Amino acid sequence: MLDVAIIGGGPAGLSAGLYATRGGLKNVVMFEKGMPGGQITSSSEMENYPGVATVMDGMSFMAPWTEQCTRFGLKHEMANVEKVAKNSDGSFSIFLEGGKEEKAKAVIVCTGSTPKKAGFKGEDEFFGKGVSTCATCDGFFYKNKEVAVLGGGDTALEEAQYLANICSKVYLIHRRDEFRAAPVTVEKAKKNPKIEFITSASVDEVYGDNIAGVKGIKVKLKDGSIRDLQVPGIFTFVGLNVRNDVLKGEDGKFICDTLPTGQVRVNLKMQTNIPGLFAAGDLREDAPKQVVCAAADGAVAALSAMSYIESLH
Are residues 186 and 281 in the same domain? Predict the structure, then answer.
């Protein structure tokens, strides 16, 4: 039986693995089907992690984490977890894709989040054909072309600046006049001559065809008129949905307390209402969705899991 099963390999999962193994637990496995690193690996710019003064992309920033976090014995299993269940003896069953099952004394769920859909016409039809949620993945395809960015948070403005280095022009579309992004980020974007702000506006429709993909975007302005932007690509950054499916039982209900929005209720020790089950990172309630906070959550969850396992003896 595993001491701790960690589900998810982003900053929270990796930190949990580091603290659990360095703290003396011998049998700790992190289940992450893909390469560890989490959502931050798709970010173009990482400049606010304390102690890391060099500005770098998310992939480069996360590269040393896996090596450091596995140094003390954390095992990485490239498997997809389908669900977690609490057993009558107090242990947990982790059900993996393909029918395999693992047992663990404690579970830390760090499955993170995925980008929300904006909900405009043509979004699904042209996703991957001009509609994207990752500037570092797809920005190169629009070198010296005009593109649009939808959103008003830090990610939207940072990625607009990243795209401005590649593209000839970036239209930044936001539904309000005010921005959620940090003032310094807004100021930097406003000073960029390649970025044009279109505020109090929404994307009505993305249009194109199956051969060329996106050909343009219809933007609804404050006065109700439509502005037609003939651009081949739009990048959407309108928030995140938590990945909580592993915590659903056979009946479709969550095995622990959650908010109506799907985030998991935890206390300051990252404990859920189920003894031995912890949640960390974007998945938990009131998550600030910052790498430094996710890493801290993982460390706290691991320390709590260690205390819980000690209490079993």
Answer: no
Rounded mean pLDDT of the chain?
Answer: 95
SS3 state at 49: coil
**Cβ atoms 276, 90 nearer than 8 A:** yes
8 Å CB contact between 65 and 295: no
CATH number at residue 269: 3.50.50.60
User: Consecutive 10-residue runs of the chain (313 residues): their mean pLDDT?
Assistant: 97 98 97 92 86 92 94 96 96 96 98 93 94 89 96 94 96 95 94 97 95 94 95 94 94 95 96 98 92 97 98 90
Pairing of strands 92-96, 101-109: antiparallel
Q: Please identify which of the residues 138, 154, 282, 297 carries the catalytic annotation.
A: 138
Judge if 143 and 73 occupy the same domain.
no
Whole-model pTM? Answer: 0.85
Tokens of 246: 């592993």
Annotated active-site residue 137? The verdict is: yes
Active site annotation includes 138: yes
Query: Which residue in this structure is represented by tokens 């993305």?
Result: 206
CB 176 within 8 A of CB 152: yes
Note whether 108 and 244 are same-domain residues: yes
Residue of 124, 137, 177, 245 with catalytic role:
137
Active site residue 3: no
The DSSP-derived string for 55-115 is -B-HHHHHHHHHHHHHTTS-EEE---EEEEEE-TTS-EEEEETTS-EEEEEEEEE---EEE
pLDDT in tens, 94-106: 999 999 999 999 9
